[in-house]
Design a protein that fits this description.
six-stranded mixed sheet, 17 strands, 3 domains, 419 residues, homodimer, alpha/beta, Maf protein, five-stranded mixed sheet, Molybdenum Cofactor Biosythetic Enzyme, Chain A
């Protein structure tokens, strides 16, 4: 299957506050055809640099898509630069001029002299009509060392680009490409570090280049993408089967989602299915757990509320945690985490409660090392339980992980046979 | 002045839903030094492709910054690829291994075998410490056809990248670049939309290309950077004076920080100075306000805790808001916001309380339009007050802004002459 390279032209795309978003649309469309994007490049409005970039792209990619720089002004250099890179001339197209003139007449606007620049096309190019703007596109087929290449020139404005790609380029591309199917598998994993996970599963995926395995890690949240390409659904599925079942076996219940859902969404679905309600009691995370749970639309079906208890007095006065317990065990203890969860449940009447207490640093208040976090769980008719973790990172990292670990402990508890 | 090229490494950056944002930060920083970015490239985790890209970049740019691909796994190919491109070897660095071992020990985690990959550096490279993660960076100086080049290898996670660039690369770059003085002014502004702000101040800054004015907008939080370049401090300061005082006058107390401090840090300082304490009562934000306040180290000096009250029953049972008030005014009303703040203050004994209640969508429960958010404030000896806002965005955007508006209302209240 051929690879593609996308080149976005425009000096404004090299400033500190602009990103090229056209390439995201194009990537999505290309992937659906089985074409991978090997590189994406952004170049300013400089004829020599653009020409060089096109030349480099043609050396590696069978499909080169160039966006932007097709306007009527002097700094629209794409037409010239592509002609340079291909060693071809620009030629004036009578029919493009006619089309431009017609368009300006239709909108009752005078056509500026420099719009005539848009009537030029690279020798041998097929002009692509642009019903949404003035810049025609171009479809150029070429041979590089006996390999066929396609170069597409598309306008920069997203509406024009998308329309032209869908209407003109997709049908042409589909005719050129061998029939092929991509099948994917996606896992989200909580409660493991990236290198621990990689050590566990890399012996499984490493021997294979198809499927391609990509691992993306956030704090305590890892995404694994498997992508297999084949001529048919069956072939692609068969390739996936070489590694997917073994990865699933190794990760077991560490996998919390196979469809991209977030941990909080998975928990919400589970609570809704159980017709159960939830409350929280947070110390070191200060509301992060509640924030994540309430990020899900419709969470009022199961989330009641909770308590932020940032010091010992709040733990006793707001929640009703026994002062003696705090004195004996300190706030960062399994006894107190259990009591926080139980008290929150009692005060709110929720079916389940999660609590977090810990040392997020930079200083420790209880003597427990920074990173010590205790997660408590309570549920109607269940014995409360708590677990102590040593979490990694600075204050922000520890707090992020604490909320993530709490959600994951809750998820696994809800999924356990206890219920 | 030399040009730069930025290469982002990572197959995930070639998918249809990820963009490289690190290059925006880097562009901003480079521009401030007078360095222009000539190209930006995204390449997948492929050793040969990355090596080729580095090779091409070195042919044209004096400064090449490569981000990502420095992790411990097999698909982290940056170290190898850069060594290939430069025709150098990778060498094992005892001190990097020591640093990694020490870091894992400090966080009480076992070090996986493959983390040792991160102890390798390109021959002749200076290793750059990474206090925020496990991937050390590298600073490599080289000669290409008698021109000095600098290649920087920086970690992909934005926090690590920014920290390392600011602390390690900026000082080294400044020493290499021709002498030039840059003077900056920085403002953070809350409670205004970007286009309102731009309409207000663009007549002041637009006529000037030096200072350069950069406006970076987040939801309800705008950063304004002014950067003047001159041969001397006096010249650069003089240039700044052409626009800075007028911008400050126009924005007035909308400016909450001149040193980059976050809103929650500014509030923390103010509360500490007043020897006052704070609590929260949150409905639609579900903990986001508490999370932001507690993101500041040492916030236990002034933050006590609070209540997450996600439905009417919790507002009456946990906080003690009068049920009649809820019935008459609904939960999204100034009367209820005031009562929430007053009740939270009464229950915790805090000097001040902030409350948030609103409709974050997608559906409205009270009939108030989605985006309606009411912020309440209460303080010892003060009459409680509330304000109603129509906030913009999807659920996430409305919740982000609600927390931001609440913090800003509190800040301006604390700064008002009332206290």
């Amino acid at each position: 299957m051929p690879d593609a390279e996308i080149i976005a032209i425009g000096s404004e795309l090299l400033t500190a506050d602009k990103v090229d978003t056209n390439s995201l649309y194009l990537t999505d469309q290309l992937n659906a055809l089985g074409v991978e994007v090997r590189r994406k490049l952004v170049v300013g409005d400089d004829r020599a640099l653009v020409s060089e970039a096109v030349h480099q792209a043609l050396a590696g990619a069978e499909i080169v898509i160039i966006t932007g720089g097709l306007g009527p002004t002097e700094d629209d250099v794409t037409r010239d630069a592509v002609a340079d890179a291909l060693g071809r001339k620009l030629e004036f197209r009578e029919e493009l001029l006619g089309w431009l003139t017609e368009r300006f007449k239709r909108f009752n606007r005078p056509m500026a002299e420099n719009n005539k620049r848009q009537a030029y096309a690279v020798q041998g190019a097929e002009a692509l009509p642009n019903p949404r703007g003035t810049a025609p596109g171009q479809w150029i087929e070429t041979m590089v060392e006996s390999n066929g290449r396609v170069v597409m020139l598309l306008p920069g404005p997203p509406r024009e680009l998308k329309g032209m790609f869908a209407e003109e380029c997709l049908p042409r591309l589909t005719r050129r490409l061998p029939p092929q199917v991509i099948r994917t598998r996606f896992y989200r994993v909580a409660g493991m570090g990236e290198s621990d996970l990689d050590q566990l599963i890399s012996p499984v995926y490493k021997p294979f280049t198809n499927p391609v395995t990509t691992i993306l890690a956030g704090p305590g949240d890892i995404q694994i993408h498997l992508r297999a390409r084949g001529a048919t659904h069956e072939e692609a599925d068969g390739l996936l089967q070489q590694i997917a079942p073994e990865i699933e076996r190794l990760l077991g219940d560490r996998i919390y989602s196979r469809d991209g859902s977030s941990l909080e969404a998975v928990i919400g679905e589970r609570l809704r299915a159980l017709r159960a309600t939830l409350c929280v009691a947070e110390s070191c995370t200060g509301g992060w757990l509640g924030e994540r749970i309430t990020s899900i639309p419709g969470c009022s079906d199961y989330f009641l509320g909770g308590f932020l208890v940032y010091n010992d007095r709040m733990k006793t006065e707001l929640l009703g945690v026994d002062a003696g317990l705090l004195k004996i065990h300190t706030a960062v203890s399994e006894a107190v985490a259990c009591a926080m969860a139980e008290c929150a449940r009692a005060k709110t009447g929720a079916t389940f409660a999660v609590s977090i207490t810990g040392e997020a640093g930079p200083e420790s208040f209880t003597g427990a090392p920074v990173g010590t976090v205790v997660i408590g769980l309570a549920g109607a008719g269940l014995v409360p339980q708590a677990k102590t973790y040593s979490l990694f990172g600075d204050r922000n990292g520890i707090r992020t992980r604490a909320a993530q670990w709490a959600l994951d402990d809750l998820r696994r508890w809800l999924d356990s046979s206890a219920l």
